[in-house]
Protein backbone atom coordinates (compact mmCIF):
# COMPACT_ATOMS: atom_id res chain seq x y z
CA UNK A 1 0.00 0.00 0.00
CA UNK A 2 1.12 3.52 -0.84
CA UNK A 3 -0.31 6.63 0.85
CA UNK A 4 -0.83 10.02 -0.77
CA UNK A 5 -1.34 12.81 1.74
CA UNK A 6 -2.98 15.93 0.34
CA UNK A 7 -1.42 19.13 1.63
CA UNK A 8 -3.04 22.02 -0.15
CA UNK A 9 -4.92 25.19 0.53
CA UNK A 10 -3.97 28.48 2.11
CA UNK A 11 -7.04 28.91 4.26
CA UNK A 12 -7.49 31.89 6.52
CA UNK A 13 -10.04 30.39 8.91
CA UNK A 14 -7.29 30.33 11.55
CA UNK A 15 -6.06 33.84 10.80
CA UNK A 16 -3.86 35.56 11.94
CA UNK A 17 -1.73 32.41 12.40
CA UNK A 18 -2.71 30.87 9.06
CA UNK A 19 -2.12 32.79 5.85
CA UNK A 20 -1.15 32.25 2.19
CA UNK A 21 2.26 30.91 3.26
CA UNK A 22 1.33 28.97 6.41
CA UNK A 23 -1.80 26.84 6.22
CA UNK A 24 -3.55 25.46 9.29
CA UNK A 25 -1.68 22.14 9.16
CA UNK A 26 1.60 23.92 9.93
CA UNK A 27 0.57 25.76 13.11
CA UNK A 28 2.61 24.54 16.09
CA UNK A 29 -0.18 24.44 18.65
CA UNK A 30 -0.64 20.76 19.57
CA UNK A 31 1.35 18.75 22.12
CA UNK A 32 3.71 16.02 21.03
CA UNK A 33 3.23 12.56 22.54
CA UNK A 34 5.61 13.42 25.40
CA UNK A 35 3.83 16.74 26.14
CA UNK A 36 7.20 18.52 25.99
CA UNK A 37 7.04 20.40 22.66
CA UNK A 38 4.44 22.10 20.51
CA UNK A 39 3.97 20.51 17.12
CA UNK A 40 1.81 21.10 14.08
CA UNK A 41 -0.97 18.92 12.70
CA UNK A 42 1.26 17.65 9.89
CA UNK A 43 4.04 16.78 12.37
CA UNK A 44 1.53 14.90 14.55
CA UNK A 45 0.22 12.90 11.58
CA UNK A 46 3.76 12.10 10.45
CA UNK A 47 4.59 10.79 13.92
CA UNK A 48 1.52 8.56 13.75
CA UNK A 49 2.50 7.29 10.30
CA UNK A 50 5.90 6.32 11.65
CA UNK A 51 4.32 4.50 14.60
CA UNK A 52 2.11 2.58 12.13
CA UNK A 53 5.10 1.84 9.85
CA UNK A 54 3.47 3.74 7.00
CA UNK A 55 5.79 6.75 6.64
CA UNK A 56 8.25 5.03 4.26
CA UNK A 57 5.41 4.40 1.81
CA UNK A 58 3.87 7.86 2.14
CA UNK A 59 4.01 10.67 -0.42
CA UNK A 60 2.82 14.23 0.11
CA UNK A 61 1.07 15.98 -2.79
CA UNK A 62 1.52 19.70 -2.33
CA UNK A 63 2.05 23.06 -4.01
CA UNK A 64 5.39 24.77 -4.55
CA UNK A 65 4.59 27.33 -1.85
CA UNK A 66 4.54 24.60 0.83
CA UNK A 67 7.73 22.73 -0.11
CA UNK A 68 10.03 24.70 2.18
CA UNK A 69 7.79 24.56 5.25
CA UNK A 70 7.28 20.80 4.77
CA UNK A 71 11.05 20.35 4.58
CA UNK A 72 11.39 22.48 7.71
CA UNK A 73 8.82 20.61 9.78
CA UNK A 74 9.39 17.03 8.62
CA UNK A 75 12.43 14.86 8.04
CA UNK A 76 14.73 15.45 5.08
CA UNK A 77 13.79 12.33 3.13
CA UNK A 78 10.07 13.01 2.78
CA UNK A 79 8.75 12.26 -0.69
CA UNK A 80 6.94 15.20 -2.28
CA UNK A 81 4.89 15.41 -5.47
CA UNK A 82 4.73 19.11 -6.28
CA UNK A 83 1.99 20.68 -8.38
CA UNK A 84 3.28 23.18 -10.98
CA UNK A 85 0.30 25.33 -10.01
CA UNK A 86 -2.32 25.12 -7.28
CA UNK A 87 -5.47 23.34 -8.42
CA UNK A 88 -8.11 21.04 -6.89
CA UNK A 89 -7.88 17.48 -5.53
CA UNK A 90 -8.57 15.62 -8.80
CA UNK A 91 -5.52 17.08 -10.61
CA UNK A 92 -3.36 16.68 -7.49
CA UNK A 93 -4.26 12.99 -7.07
CA UNK A 94 -3.92 12.35 -10.81
CA UNK A 95 -0.43 13.89 -10.79
CA UNK A 96 0.61 11.84 -7.77
CA UNK A 97 -0.75 8.65 -9.35
CA UNK A 98 1.26 9.18 -12.54
CA UNK A 99 4.35 9.85 -10.41
CA UNK A 100 3.91 6.54 -8.59
CA UNK A 101 3.24 4.72 -11.85
CA UNK A 102 5.87 6.12 -14.22
CA UNK A 103 8.59 7.43 -11.90
CA UNK A 104 8.48 4.98 -8.98
CA UNK A 105 7.43 1.85 -10.87
CA UNK A 106 4.58 1.07 -8.49
CA UNK A 107 2.64 -2.03 -9.54
CA UNK A 108 -0.78 -1.37 -11.06
CA UNK A 109 -2.31 -3.78 -8.54
CA UNK A 110 -1.00 -1.74 -5.60
CA UNK A 111 -3.54 -0.14 -3.28
CA UNK A 112 -3.31 3.66 -3.12
CA UNK A 113 -4.83 5.36 -0.07
CA UNK A 114 -5.64 9.09 -0.11
CA UNK A 115 -5.99 11.13 3.05
CA UNK A 116 -5.74 14.74 4.21
CA UNK A 117 -2.44 15.71 5.77
CA UNK A 118 -4.06 17.04 8.94
CA UNK A 119 -6.71 14.75 10.51
CA UNK A 120 -6.78 14.81 14.32
CA UNK A 121 -7.21 11.11 15.10
CA UNK A 122 -6.15 8.31 17.41
CA UNK A 123 -3.27 6.10 16.31
CA UNK A 124 -5.67 3.23 15.54
CA UNK A 125 -7.14 5.27 12.68
CA UNK A 126 -4.04 4.39 10.66
CA UNK A 127 -4.55 0.71 11.39
CA UNK A 128 -8.00 1.16 9.86
CA UNK A 129 -6.37 2.69 6.77
CA UNK A 130 -4.17 -0.40 6.43
CA UNK A 131 -7.30 -2.57 6.28
CA UNK A 132 -8.53 -0.79 3.14
CA UNK A 133 -6.26 -3.03 1.08
CA UNK A 134 -8.11 -6.11 2.31
CA UNK A 135 -11.49 -4.36 1.93
CA UNK A 136 -10.81 -3.68 -1.75
CA UNK A 137 -9.76 -7.30 -2.29
CA UNK A 138 -12.75 -8.83 -0.51
CA UNK A 139 -15.39 -6.46 -1.89
CA UNK A 140 -14.11 -6.10 -5.44
CA UNK A 141 -15.08 -2.44 -5.22
CA UNK A 142 -13.48 0.31 -7.29
CA UNK A 143 -13.16 2.64 -4.29
CA UNK A 144 -13.16 1.96 -0.54
CA UNK A 145 -13.87 4.80 1.87
CA UNK A 146 -13.47 5.24 5.61
CA UNK A 147 -16.59 6.58 7.29
CA UNK A 148 -16.45 7.86 10.85
CA UNK A 149 -19.31 6.97 13.17
CA UNK A 150 -20.75 10.38 14.14
CA UNK A 151 -20.88 11.58 17.75
CA UNK A 152 -23.32 14.42 17.07
CA UNK A 153 -25.41 15.77 14.13
CA UNK A 154 -22.87 18.14 12.58
CA UNK A 155 -23.91 20.51 9.81
CA UNK A 156 -20.26 21.03 8.78
CA UNK A 157 -19.43 17.55 7.44
CA UNK A 158 -20.47 15.49 4.48
CA UNK A 159 -22.23 12.16 5.14
CA UNK A 160 -21.89 8.72 3.58
CA UNK A 161 -25.20 6.88 3.32
CA UNK A 162 -24.59 3.10 3.31
CA UNK A 163 -27.11 0.51 2.25
CA UNK A 164 -28.92 0.14 5.55
CA UNK A 165 -29.91 -3.48 5.04
CA UNK A 166 -26.26 -4.58 5.31
CA UNK A 167 -24.63 -5.34 8.63
CA UNK A 168 -21.17 -6.55 7.67
CA UNK A 169 -18.69 -5.37 10.28
CA UNK A 170 -15.82 -4.89 7.80
CA UNK A 171 -17.49 -2.81 5.11
CA UNK A 172 -20.82 -1.67 3.68
CA UNK A 173 -21.77 -0.77 0.15
CA UNK A 174 -22.43 2.95 -0.39
CA UNK A 175 -25.88 4.12 -1.44
CA UNK A 176 -25.31 7.88 -1.72
CA UNK A 177 -23.68 11.01 -0.28
CA UNK A 178 -25.22 14.02 1.45
CA UNK A 179 -23.22 17.23 1.83
CA UNK A 180 -23.61 19.31 5.02
CA UNK A 181 -27.28 18.65 5.83
CA UNK A 182 -29.42 20.57 8.30
CA UNK A 183 -29.01 19.38 11.88
CA UNK A 184 -32.44 17.70 11.97
CA UNK A 185 -31.80 15.75 8.76
CA UNK A 186 -28.31 14.85 9.99
CA UNK A 187 -29.73 13.34 13.17
CA UNK A 188 -32.24 11.27 11.19
CA UNK A 189 -29.49 9.96 8.93
CA UNK A 190 -27.24 9.16 11.90
CA UNK A 191 -30.09 7.20 13.52
CA UNK A 192 -30.26 5.15 10.33
CA UNK A 193 -26.49 4.49 10.21
CA UNK A 194 -24.99 7.36 8.20
CA UNK A 195 -21.27 8.03 8.61
CA UNK A 196 -19.13 11.17 8.44
CA UNK A 197 -17.09 11.44 5.26
CA UNK A 198 -13.55 12.09 6.53
CA UNK A 199 -11.94 12.36 3.09
CA UNK A 200 -10.05 9.05 3.28
CA UNK A 201 -10.40 6.51 0.48
CA UNK A 202 -8.44 3.91 -1.45
CA UNK A 203 -8.32 2.36 -4.92
CA UNK A 204 -6.05 0.17 -6.98
CA UNK A 205 -3.55 2.21 -9.01
CA UNK A 206 -4.83 0.40 -12.08
CA UNK A 207 -8.30 1.93 -11.54
CA UNK A 208 -7.13 5.53 -11.71
CA UNK A 209 -4.56 5.00 -14.48
CA UNK A 210 -7.25 3.45 -16.68
CA UNK A 211 -9.58 6.32 -15.81
CA UNK A 212 -6.96 8.85 -16.94
CA UNK A 213 -6.60 6.94 -20.23
CA UNK A 214 -10.39 7.03 -20.63
CA UNK A 215 -10.32 10.81 -20.04
CA UNK A 216 -7.59 11.22 -22.65
CA UNK A 217 -5.13 12.44 -20.01
CA UNK A 218 -1.44 11.47 -19.88
CA UNK A 219 -0.26 8.67 -17.60
CA UNK A 220 3.42 9.61 -17.78
CA UNK A 221 4.42 12.03 -15.02
CA UNK A 222 6.47 14.40 -17.21
CA UNK A 223 3.62 14.69 -19.71
CA UNK A 224 1.14 15.26 -16.89
CA UNK A 225 3.29 18.12 -15.60
CA UNK A 226 3.34 19.78 -19.02
CA UNK A 227 -0.44 19.47 -19.43
CA UNK A 228 -1.34 20.18 -15.81
CA UNK A 229 -3.09 23.48 -16.54
CA UNK A 230 -5.51 21.71 -18.92
CA UNK A 231 -6.77 19.15 -16.39
CA UNK A 232 -10.25 19.89 -14.99
CA UNK A 233 -9.80 21.81 -11.73
CA UNK A 234 -12.41 19.81 -9.86
CA UNK A 235 -12.50 17.85 -6.64
CA UNK A 236 -11.83 14.10 -6.82
CA UNK A 237 -15.26 13.58 -5.25
CA UNK A 238 -16.98 15.40 -8.12
CA UNK A 239 -14.81 14.09 -10.93
CA UNK A 240 -14.54 10.44 -9.82
CA UNK A 241 -16.31 9.32 -6.64
CA UNK A 242 -19.79 10.64 -7.51
CA UNK A 243 -19.58 8.93 -10.91
CA UNK A 244 -18.50 5.55 -9.51
CA UNK A 245 -21.14 2.97 -8.66
CA UNK A 246 -19.12 0.24 -6.99
CA UNK A 247 -18.05 1.93 -3.72
CA UNK A 248 -17.83 0.50 -0.22
CA UNK A 249 -17.19 2.13 3.14
CA UNK A 250 -15.37 0.80 6.18
CA UNK A 251 -16.82 2.25 9.42
CA UNK A 252 -14.38 3.72 11.95
CA UNK A 253 -15.63 3.92 15.52
CA UNK A 254 -12.95 6.08 17.11
CA UNK A 255 -11.78 9.62 17.70
CA UNK A 256 -11.68 11.86 14.62
CA UNK A 257 -11.90 15.63 14.33
CA UNK A 258 -11.36 18.23 11.64
CA UNK A 259 -9.50 21.08 13.38
CA UNK A 260 -10.53 23.64 10.80
CA UNK A 261 -11.73 26.46 13.04
CA UNK A 262 -10.57 28.14 16.21
CA UNK A 263 -13.57 26.61 17.94
CA UNK A 264 -12.45 23.03 17.24
CA UNK A 265 -8.70 23.65 17.46
CA UNK A 266 -8.80 25.17 20.93
CA UNK A 267 -10.70 22.09 22.17
CA UNK A 268 -7.52 20.08 21.57
CA UNK A 269 -5.11 22.51 23.20
CA UNK A 270 -3.68 21.20 26.49
CA UNK A 271 -3.29 24.73 27.85
CA UNK A 272 -5.50 27.78 27.51
CA UNK A 273 -2.43 29.96 26.92
CA UNK A 274 0.34 29.59 24.34
CA UNK A 275 2.87 32.39 24.43
CA UNK A 276 3.10 35.44 26.65
CA UNK A 277 -0.10 36.48 28.39
CA UNK A 278 -2.69 35.99 31.12
CA UNK A 279 -6.34 34.93 31.28
CA UNK A 280 -8.29 35.87 34.41
CA UNK A 281 -10.01 33.18 36.48
CA UNK A 282 -13.46 34.56 35.66
CA UNK A 283 -12.83 34.03 31.93
CA UNK A 284 -14.26 30.60 31.15
CA UNK A 285 -13.42 28.50 28.08
CA UNK A 286 -11.23 31.25 26.62
CA UNK A 287 -7.92 30.69 24.84
CA UNK A 288 -4.95 32.89 24.03
CA UNK A 289 -2.34 32.10 21.35
CA UNK A 290 0.36 34.77 21.19
CA UNK A 291 3.33 34.58 18.79
CA UNK A 292 4.69 38.02 19.69
CA UNK A 293 6.89 38.96 22.61
CA UNK A 294 4.25 41.36 23.94
CA UNK A 295 2.02 40.77 26.98
CA UNK A 296 -1.65 40.10 26.21
CA UNK A 297 -4.17 40.04 29.07
CA UNK A 298 -7.71 38.67 28.83
CA UNK A 299 -9.97 39.84 31.66
CA UNK A 300 -13.54 38.76 32.37
CA UNK A 301 -14.27 37.44 28.88
CA UNK A 302 -15.58 33.91 28.35
CA UNK A 303 -15.84 31.66 25.27
CA UNK A 304 -13.46 33.76 23.23
CA UNK A 305 -10.24 33.19 21.31
CA UNK A 306 -7.46 35.75 21.14
CA UNK A 307 -4.83 35.03 18.47
CA UNK A 308 -1.83 37.31 17.99
CA UNK A 309 0.81 37.00 15.26
CA UNK A 310 2.93 39.28 13.05
CA UNK A 311 0.00 39.23 10.58
CA UNK A 312 -2.51 40.75 13.00
CA UNK A 313 -4.76 40.26 16.02
CA UNK A 314 -8.04 38.36 16.29
CA UNK A 315 -10.42 38.76 19.22
CA UNK A 316 -13.55 36.71 18.63
CA UNK A 317 -16.34 34.78 20.25
CA UNK A 318 -15.45 31.19 19.42
CA UNK A 319 -18.71 30.48 17.63
CA UNK A 320 -18.21 33.57 15.45
CA UNK A 321 -14.55 32.91 14.58
CA UNK A 322 -15.25 31.19 11.19
CA UNK A 323 -16.57 34.54 9.93
CA UNK A 324 -12.98 35.79 9.68
CA UNK A 325 -12.75 34.08 6.29
CA UNK A 326 -15.36 36.46 4.88
CA UNK A 327 -13.77 39.48 6.55
CA UNK A 328 -10.44 38.71 4.84
CA UNK A 329 -11.89 37.83 1.45
CA UNK A 330 -10.39 40.87 -0.28
CA UNK A 331 -7.24 41.04 1.83
CA UNK A 332 -4.06 40.81 -0.25
CA UNK A 333 -1.52 41.62 2.47
CA UNK A 334 1.78 39.76 2.29
CA UNK A 335 2.44 37.15 5.00
CA UNK A 336 4.54 38.60 7.81
CA UNK A 337 5.86 35.22 9.01
CA UNK A 338 7.12 32.26 7.00
CA UNK A 339 8.85 28.99 7.81
CA UNK A 340 11.48 27.88 5.33
CA UNK A 341 13.63 24.76 4.96
CA UNK A 342 16.48 26.63 6.70
CA UNK A 343 14.48 28.21 9.57
CA UNK A 344 12.05 31.13 9.50
CA UNK A 345 11.72 34.86 9.08
CA UNK A 346 9.43 37.49 10.57
CA UNK A 347 8.71 40.90 9.05
CA UNK A 348 9.27 43.51 11.76
CA UNK A 349 8.47 46.73 9.88
CA UNK A 350 7.53 48.04 6.47
CA UNK A 351 7.70 51.72 5.47
CA UNK A 352 8.50 54.19 2.71
CA UNK A 353 10.98 57.08 2.94
CA UNK A 354 10.76 60.61 1.51
CA UNK A 355 12.57 59.45 -1.65
CA UNK A 356 9.86 56.82 -2.27
CA UNK A 357 12.17 53.93 -1.48
CA UNK A 358 10.46 50.98 0.18
CA UNK A 359 12.06 49.74 3.41
CA UNK A 360 11.42 46.28 4.85
CA UNK A 361 12.94 45.02 8.10
CA UNK A 362 13.12 41.27 8.79
CA UNK A 363 14.29 39.05 11.60
CA UNK A 364 15.88 35.99 9.98
CA UNK A 365 16.62 32.86 12.04
CA UNK A 366 18.70 30.11 10.40
CA UNK A 367 18.97 26.87 12.35
CA UNK A 368 22.34 25.22 12.91
CA UNK A 369 23.68 23.38 9.87
CA UNK A 370 21.28 24.97 7.38
CA UNK A 371 22.00 27.56 4.71
CA UNK A 372 20.32 30.05 2.42
CA UNK A 373 20.62 29.39 -1.30
CA UNK A 374 23.32 31.21 -3.24
CA UNK A 375 21.21 34.01 -4.72
CA UNK A 376 20.98 37.63 -5.77
CA UNK A 377 18.28 40.29 -6.05
CA UNK A 378 17.61 42.62 -8.95
CA UNK A 379 15.54 45.38 -7.36
CA UNK A 380 16.87 45.71 -3.83
CA UNK A 381 19.93 46.03 -1.66
CA UNK A 382 20.18 44.45 1.77
CA UNK A 383 21.96 45.33 4.99
CA UNK A 384 22.56 42.53 7.51
CA UNK A 385 23.31 42.86 11.20
CA UNK A 386 24.27 39.62 12.94
CA UNK A 387 22.43 39.59 16.28
CA UNK A 388 23.54 36.21 17.60
CA UNK A 389 25.31 33.04 16.56
CA UNK A 390 28.05 32.28 14.07
CA UNK A 391 28.03 31.38 10.40
CA UNK A 392 29.88 31.20 7.10
CA UNK A 393 29.24 33.87 4.46
CA UNK A 394 29.87 33.68 0.72
CA UNK A 395 29.61 37.11 -0.91
CA UNK A 396 30.33 37.28 -4.66
CA UNK A 397 32.48 34.15 -4.41
CA UNK A 398 34.39 35.54 -1.42
CA UNK A 399 34.34 33.53 1.84
CA UNK A 400 34.33 34.89 5.38
CA UNK A 401 33.18 33.97 8.89
CA UNK A 402 30.10 35.77 10.28
CA UNK A 403 29.83 36.48 13.99
CA UNK A 404 27.73 38.52 16.39
CA UNK A 405 27.93 42.27 15.66
CA UNK A 406 29.04 41.96 12.02
CA UNK A 407 27.49 44.35 9.48
CA UNK A 408 27.19 43.21 5.86
CA UNK A 409 26.04 45.33 2.89
CA UNK A 410 24.68 43.43 -0.12
CA UNK A 411 24.14 45.65 -3.21
CA UNK A 412 21.67 44.62 -5.96
CA UNK A 413 22.85 41.73 -8.17
CA UNK A 414 25.42 40.69 -5.55
CA UNK A 415 25.51 36.93 -5.05
CA UNK A 416 25.32 35.86 -1.43
CA UNK A 417 24.65 32.91 0.86
CA UNK A 418 25.15 32.09 4.52
CA UNK A 419 25.39 28.84 6.47
CA UNK A 420 24.66 28.70 10.21
CA UNK A 421 27.45 27.10 12.26
CA UNK A 422 25.24 27.67 15.30
CA UNK A 423 21.66 28.94 15.39
CA UNK A 424 22.07 32.26 13.61
CA UNK A 425 19.91 35.38 13.94
CA UNK A 426 20.19 38.25 11.47
CA UNK A 427 18.32 41.55 11.23
CA UNK A 428 17.90 42.28 7.54
CA UNK A 429 16.95 45.70 6.13
CA UNK A 430 15.81 45.68 2.51
CA UNK A 431 15.85 48.93 0.50
CA UNK A 432 14.53 49.17 -3.04
CA UNK A 433 11.72 49.81 -5.47
CA UNK A 434 10.13 46.35 -5.46
CA UNK A 435 10.40 44.42 -2.20
CA UNK A 436 8.79 41.08 -3.04
CA UNK A 437 9.83 37.51 -2.23
CA UNK A 438 9.85 36.72 -5.95
CA UNK A 439 12.87 39.01 -6.47
CA UNK A 440 15.27 36.12 -5.88
CA UNK A 441 17.50 34.57 -8.53
CA UNK A 442 18.77 31.28 -7.06
CA UNK A 443 22.05 29.88 -8.33
CA UNK A 444 22.59 26.89 -6.03
CA UNK A 445 21.14 25.56 -2.79
CA UNK A 446 23.78 22.96 -1.82
CA UNK A 447 26.45 24.42 0.47
CA UNK A 448 29.11 21.98 -0.73
CA UNK A 449 28.61 23.31 -4.28
CA UNK A 450 28.48 26.95 -3.15
CA UNK A 451 31.83 26.62 -1.36
CA UNK A 452 33.44 25.34 -4.57
CA UNK A 453 32.64 28.69 -6.22
CA UNK A 454 34.74 30.64 -3.72
CA UNK A 455 37.92 32.33 -4.89
CA UNK A 456 40.92 30.91 -3.02
UniProtKB/TrEMBL annotation:
Nucleotidyl transferase domain mapped to chain residues: 4-269
Family matches, as Gene3D superfamilies: Jelly Rolls, Spore Coat Polysaccharide Biosynthesis Protein SpsA, Chain A
Domain of life: Bacteria
Segments forming domain Mannose-6-phosphate isomerase type II C-terminal: 340-444
InterPro entries: Man6P_isomerase-2_C, Mannose-6P_isomerase_type2, NTP_transferase_dom, Nucleotide-diphossugar_trans, RmlC-like_jellyroll, RmlC_Cupin_sf
The protein's name: Sugar phosphate nucleotidyltransferase
Alphabetized CDD domains for the sequence: cupin_PMI_typeII_C
